[in-house]
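Form P-L/3: holo structure prediction, ligand (2S,3S)-3-hydroxy-2-methylbutanoyl-COA.
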Amino acid sequence: MSALRFSDTISAALADGILVVTIDNAPVNALSADVRAGLMAALDHAEKDGGVKSIVLTGAGNSFIGGADIKEFGKPPVEPHLPDVIARIEAFAKPVAASINGAALGGGLEVALACHRRHAVPSAKIGLPEVKLGIVPGAGGTQRLPRLIGVSAAIDMIAGARIISASEALKLGIVDGVSESALLADAMADIKGLDASSLRRTGALSVPAAPIETIEKTAADALRKARGQNAPTEAVRLVCLAATTPLAEGLAEERRTFIMLRDSEEAAALRHVFFAERAAGKVDGLEAVTPRRIETVGIVGTGLMGSGIAVSALNGGYRIIGVEQNIEAAEKGRERIAGLLDKAVQSGRLDTAGREDRLGRLSVTADMQQLAQADIVIEAVFDDLTVKTELFQRLDTIIRADAILATNTSYLDPDVIAAATARPERVVGLHFFSPAHIMRLLEVVDCKETAPDVLASALAFAKRLGKLPIVSGVTEGFIGNRIFSAYRREAEYMVEDGALPQEIDAALEAYGFPMGPFAVFDMAGLEIAWARRKRQAATRDPSERYVVIADRLCEAGRFGQKTGRGWYAYPEGKRTVDPEVTGMIEAARAKKGIVPKRFTAEEIVAGLLKAMVDEGDALLSEGIAARASDIDLVMINGYGFPSSKGGPMFAAGRR
Ligand code: T1G
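OUTPUT (holo model):
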């Protein structure tokens, strides 16, 4: 095969009249300016060279094309523009096939859709996830996909940013074949037989008809999940447009919408989150450290948190030993874990074979000696320092010298726990967020003595659990709860100064939080923070402003939703403003001689954002958080901060 090079990232080889064009732009073959120019040059060559009968496009590595180059979005566009490259492929006189050797996402799938034939490996990820970046497909996806699979399936994929497997893509008609072992050969064989005069050009197809009710239902489902974000709404509109509009007009409207959204605040925020997630969990110098091998996980305490952690670790493929104080409690733990797996089966997230496989890797016991087999032991027992410390001291005598000890504590000082053990260097914090088998966020606490390979092991473990690991230093509440405490303090200051809980909640919910702070406090229960405030009372700085209103609520037995009354009343479970609480607030203000002032929604959001950002800045200057984007990810994934605003640190920077 003679080798040809068309740009830094595009090469080709001619074999049997087929020009095999390879895109090699590590790490994911994103459609950079060099890739686009190289593809155009390859098409020029194929057009002129009579020896070229057809073309096969493929990728180097394990991506076909991972999409447009997101890093180019903030910069002035460079020709050739992707839609021009794609239009040329679709109109090409000679057959063009896509040999989808891996991820074909966004612009990557749009390139494939313009090809005349498509073959994929079974592991290929196929989708148009642009709405997750606050944009819509900008190179024909909303117009070509419905021509292949219909409006409803296209809405479901595009507005829902659903990435599908090669087998589903075959079923839907996106690809023409799935090749287990000879992808390129299969694609070449397929294209070889094609009659250039009757090529199936996707853009020339008409959109298959579908009942309007089906389309409306799919659209309503997609928009319900969108929770007010623009891109999914625009995606639905554009896909529906494809059914009634000539291709050229549809493409022009799609491009106009893409450019409008690409330059929006929401898209800038979601791009920030995309890159933040990829920077998270990276610790300078740790790349060279080899993590310890982890296959068997011990979990002491299989209550609410422990059972969630167990399911998460079972999902990661680990063997689990659940330990409780007695066999009855251990069996209860197994039932709790099995119950969570049953729910996953009922919701279609797991099949029965998967459930059996997981239960087959679970053992429960009251015999702590069983933990001698564990590579890591995670404690999820009552959040009391003595209980945890004594447990770790006992585990020191049971587990292997190279086994890791992880504490799931939320508020205790893991350095104190570690210092009480024989090998503090093997202690690390794994602060899971409840429910632990659902929440992606996992704060990995790098304690004073934690060895680098223990930290590397914890991060590798977190990734295999499918978690979003954020490294935190040791401070009360780590990153998330420390910022949440500042957020709560500021919200209570505002109430004492004149704002009402319902006004604050409404302002934050309008900003994009699913629930405002006072609704969250009532849901979590007021007694937890009350107990902590009472514990800290003796050492509290008398000069620090202190708001007693939450204490008054607790003294009146108003602990939140579970008692039917907290900051709100909950008649028939409905959150309702309670005049009794308003009276308690007014009395507290009067007692301090505070003349209440009015707060606008903007002032409320700005004040609470500032409280979070000031605490975030402190965490950065204290070295507790490694980067501002980590703080954004914690608040988005753990506390409901709207991702479309990018997180507190990003949002403050944009104001
Ligand atoms: N552009 C630029 N960089 C990208 C990128 C992209 N599209 N995708 C990944 N990277 C970087 C990423 O930042 C990281 O960098 C490295 O590649 C590995 O990523 C016109 C406009 C393809 C499934 O949304 O889903 O096309 O940290 O850790 O786990 O309509 O990357 O190493 O420096 O995620 O193997 C649409 C986004 C774009 C797909 C591979 N495409 N990417 O997963 O690696 S918009 C997407 C992914 C678009 C068109 C529109 C995943 C992956 P660093 P990674 P991975």
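COMMENT: The chain has a mean pLDDT of 95.
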